[in-house]
């Protein structure tokens, strides 16, 4: 383990070095804040012991600068002036813990072991995130779109604060993915990320879901139940489609945002929670305010930092890379050879307006991989609304050859029939004849679009 010791007293640095090296750590020393930052810039560290008073400088002020240089660094504040307020402020600024002077070798060992355990947990979480990327292909922040780059840059800056964030964008643009990314980039990343889907529940159930309830609060409440606010303690609460909240619940949420206080449903006791709120909406909240459907004061509280996600049709440079990512994912899931997108299909995907955005693109590619037998995905593999909207469907009576019309019809029947024999029966031909036609179509280059 690599450890940085930051203290202006030489004897403290020497004592810590001896103790840490005895535990198998690689140790570097710094007597000033600038020296500590320079040491960290030169080589990363896993753990840092930082003195509260560094001459005229403050270790508390140094904390966020160290974490900005190395976000995964575990920092322990060491001080001869330990108070509860100091400890709270140190944790607020990103310290993992604090250590009062004089300290013992056993205490140093404790922090080293805690950091090692945390590193193992981080490694496991990294593996889980990698598995998530494999199971949720749209959970990617790679983009060539300037508008999306701007949104990501704003999220990165917002992650450094605890301010409320409002994510705006059409349904399916990836607001949930961006909310999770914001949490992962923040100092709260080691605490829970909790999602509440506001439109999915009635007013009473949503109130209970958010703030919890006590036994007997309503029919079916057989025991005390904490809400999502309490479950998110220290972390991030994501309110998806927040505009769907009732006026009464909006008032409860406003109070929580202002005072960090709430009551469980059916309980008189006031509780507190340290939670960062991120909300998302696909509605025009200013219009909802004007019509009286949404509280103006709540909008101001939620909209401290506003991030607008562009629609997929506004980031066309991302459509084909996303499509290929989905094709690779679903072909791997189905254990079939990786299909190609025909030129006609690429043209179609770029021309379609995608009202359902990334979610609709994902669903369209998943369907295509299920129903299309050939190794080149043609426009006919996609729902009619997509192909028809871009002129990619061979229409009867249109300027198409008989061979093109036959190919279109045969492929569509095969896509909809449960078996090859059933498709042959519908077409009125032998299964062997249909098999030969299928092989011919699989081998044919390009599309008919």
TrEMBL record:
Modified residues (4-aspartylphosphate): 51
Range of residues in the leader sequence: none
Keywords: ATP-binding, DNA-binding, Nucleotide-binding, Phosphoprotein, Transcription, Transcription regulation
Record bears the keyword ATP-binding: yes
A Pfam family annotated for this UniProt entry: Sigma54_activat
The Response regulatory domain, residue ranges: 2-116
Domain Sigma-54 factor interaction as annotated: residue spans: 141-370
Protein name: Sigma-54 dependent transcriptional regulator
Organism expressing this protein natively: Archangium lansingense
